[in-house]
Amino acid sequence: MITFEGVTKRYPDGTVALDDVSLECPTGRITVFVGTSGGGKTTALRTINRMVEPTGGRVLIDGGDVRERRPAELRRGIGYVIQHAGLFPHRTIEDNIATVPYLLRWNKKKARATAHELMERVGLDPSMARRYPFQLSGGQQQRVGVARALAADPPIMLMDEPFSAVDPVVRGELQDEFLRLQDELHKTIVFVTHDIDEAIKLGDRVAVFQTGGKLVQVDAPEDLLARPADDFVAGFIGHDRGIRRLSFVPASGAPLTERDVLAADAPVERAREAGDGWVLVVDGDRRPLGWAATGVLPSSGTVGDAALAPIGHTFTVESDSVRAALDAAILSPSGRAVGVDGDGRLVGVADQHDLTAAIATSGAGVAAEPADTPPAEPVKGGAGD
Amino acid sequence: MNKLWNQIDLSWTWLTASAHWHGDEGITHRLLQHLFYSFVPLLAAALIGLAFGLIAGHTGRGGFVAISLANVARAIPTLGLVLILAVVEFSIVPVLIALVALAIPPILVNTYEGVRNVDEDAKDAARGMGMTGWGVLWRAEVPMALPLILLGLRTAAIQVVATATIAAIPGYGGLGRFIVDGLARNDYQLVVGGTVLVVLLALIVQVVFAALRRLVVSPGLLGSARSS
Amino acid sequence: MDIDWGWIGDHTGTLGDHAVIHIRLALLPVLFGLLISLPLGVLCRRWQWMFPPVLTVANILYAIPSLALYMVFVQYTGLTEATVMIPLTLYSLSVLVPNVVDGLGSVSEPVRQAATAMGFGPLRRLLQVELPIAVPIVIAGVRVAAVSSISLVAVGQLIGQGGLGYDILRGYQLTFQTQMVAASVLIVLLALVTDAVLVVVQRLLTPWARARGAS
């Protein structure tokens, strides 16, 4: 547990970078510091490894004041990842990763073995071990940066906008892998970002900083979305915070029907009976094929012969959120979302009204759980496909 | 240390004696000769160095050749060149040629590096706004490379001013005359006096280039560049 | 221009001896200059205000004609090799100090911060991170200093210590072109070979550096 007790940083010229910040970063969890630039989030991060010394208050790690430890030793026990990786250009990838083990005087063989193991862990081909940083892409360099921070297996990791400098696609991959890694490693992580989406995706707890170094709110992401503490936080989250909250509502709560679903070998007359609108056509294995418009069916034959409109994307009932389901519904020609199981077989269909009802009954409406309950896991994975 | 101080004192006496300033053997005449020996080669070297440096830097081609030639030029012993040429032709031309060879490398290398290292985005923007090759060179590359180009010119100028003393060895004038004659006659007063004049001249060159830098380099570029 | 090849054939031994002396007179000063400019450059990085005055002093030293500087030192160190090497050492500083400062400055801020955050103390950071990264720019300076030094040594012959400068001056006095030309060409070759060796040294020391322009 990392504890901030009334931490203040005031520079000699009078600027206040941190204003009486108190918060706890629980062990084994990801705490995200988010806020506008100049909000002091990076300064707060750097007080933990004494790269910045506060002018007031204390920072404690597991109850011990960080100032009681020598900076160099303290830092060797805390992983640190920064925006541009900060890899040493003059060292090979393996030696970059083994930097802290070398400082801790591990023998070279063990340090390198650890480095190779970590390369695989973060998704790098170990054949790159002897390359130099300039021979790697930005995303690969960032992976090396993460591996380097993990090398001495520190219980704490500080990450300062580690994924900001890579393109959105790579950033998404890095974020997903980061979450997967954290599931295995359970580090105490403090993560700084200016991107609220990243904060909500990655954080177990999110701390919002405001210009002038004020901490305005610390909450689980879904609580932050449900009850922003003030106008600043609401504005920072953005106007679509209602939609974003749906990421935390599991789609399994939505009522699904099998109304207007037909097998491909059903005669067209069955579809006409369904009335004006659309029917979903599935194959013999119950895999969705497409939507048939009842107004333009062929005069005879099966519904499989009809021209089918594409489904767009489906959602996976057990793992996706209502947000993914709603998105599927909006993009569907029929206005209905197709829910499937893990094997892609139809579970049921829901329209936008059904989904809205699910939101209301899930308790994720205006009222939410008390803030001190353990944070709920966000529903992982994007739209099913 | 006392010995050195004594010399400085003697040289001061020599420098300030008005009789030493007049006539064909006087300081004024030698100084003018020295300026002539310095200025002509510097001008020639600037024309050559700037032309090739700008072309290589702008086109990105021939850089390796330009730099290698500059390195060879740097390697030529000025004394050897002066004396060899002096044997072939007894005139001031050998000295001037040797000084041109001396002055080209710093001008060429700095011009090339200066133009080549102009921010790619800035060049791209210049092209994007519709500038032609010449426009990019004159309106973007040269102004942005000016601090480095001036640094190269200054280095060359100081080297030339200091090295032009060598003209005295095959028997020409300039401030080197005092040094070489003083050496021959064991007259250290003359040697140190001549040296002081050369160093003063070099300092004036420094000041002139500092002023030039203020005058022609955009203040927007001076913030990050080295200040001297 | 008439070259007497026979003379050259007869004198390869003496020319070789002079070349060895020449290289020693030229390169030891660069080595001393490097040993002085490394700590000096580090200090100039640490205390930025030091750099302009140090640079100005180096530039003024550079402006003193070598001939004159030799004369000054003759009175203290006599007609010895030291008298030639001290001025050359001073000259090399005007190239090496700025390059050491630039080299240390080429270490990017994220790298510096990453080193600090991983628990490098200031000295360890200097030795294991900053100086190694400065190597390409420092060697670029060493190349210029070495080549200039090799071509400057010849002037030392005016006080009796000039390596191949002896042959240049001797040939001039005897108006014997072959000796002058042979010595001058040898000096150029020595400079180019030294430069090439330094390029190879840099490649070996810094396999991590992207191809940089030679300057």
UniProtKB/TrEMBL annotation, chain A:
InterPro entries: AAA+_ATPase (IPR003593), ABC_transporter-like_ATP-bd (IPR003439), ABC_transporter-like_CS (IPR017871), P-loop_NTPase (IPR027417). Residues 362-385 are annotated as: Disordered. PROSITE patterns: ABC_TRANSPORTER_1 (PS00211), ABC_TRANSPORTER_2 (PS50893). Keywords: ATP-binding, Nucleotide-binding, Transport. Signal peptide: none annotated. It comes from the Bacteria. One of its GO terms (molecular function) is ATP binding. It holds the Pfam family ABC_tran. Residues 362-371 have a biased composition (Low complexity). Residues 2-237 form the ABC transporter domain. Belongs to the ABC transporter superfamily. This is ATP-binding cassette domain-containing protein. It comes from Actinomadura violacea.
UniProtKB/TrEMBL annotation, chain B:
The keyword RNA-binding does not apply. The chain crosses the membrane at residues 35-57, 78-104, 144-169, 190-212. Residues 31-209 form the ABC transmembrane type-1 domain. Its main location: membrane. InterPro entries: ABC_transp_perm/SBD, MetI-like, MetI-like_sf. Keywords: Membrane, Transmembrane, Transmembrane helix, Transport. It comes from the Bacteria. Gene3D superfamilies: MetI-like. It holds the Pfam family BPD_transp_1. It is a multi-pass membrane protein. It is found in: Cell membrane; Membrane. Belongs to the binding-protein-dependent transport system permease family. PANTHER family: GLYCINE BETAINE/L-PROLINE TRANSPORT SYSTEM PERMEASE PROTEIN PROW (PTHR30177), POSSIBLE OSMOPROTECTANT (GLYCINE BETAINE_CARNITINE_CHOLINE_L-PROLINE) TRANSPORT INTEGRAL MEMBRANE PROTEIN ABC TRANSPORTER PROZ (PTHR30177:SF33). This is ABC transporter permease.
Automatic annotation (TrEMBL), chain C:
Belongs to the binding-protein-dependent transport system permease family. Keywords: Membrane, Transmembrane, Transmembrane helix, Transport. It is found in: Cell membrane; Membrane. PANTHER family: GLYCINE BETAINE/L-PROLINE TRANSPORT SYSTEM PERMEASE PROTEIN PROW, OSMOPROTECTANT IMPORT PERMEASE PROTEIN OSMW. Residues 19-198 form the ABC transmembrane type-1 domain. It is a multi-pass membrane protein. The chain crosses the membrane at residues 20-42, 54-76, 82-101, 133-160, 180-201. This is ABC transporter permease. The keyword Nucleotide-binding does not apply. It comes from the Bacteria.
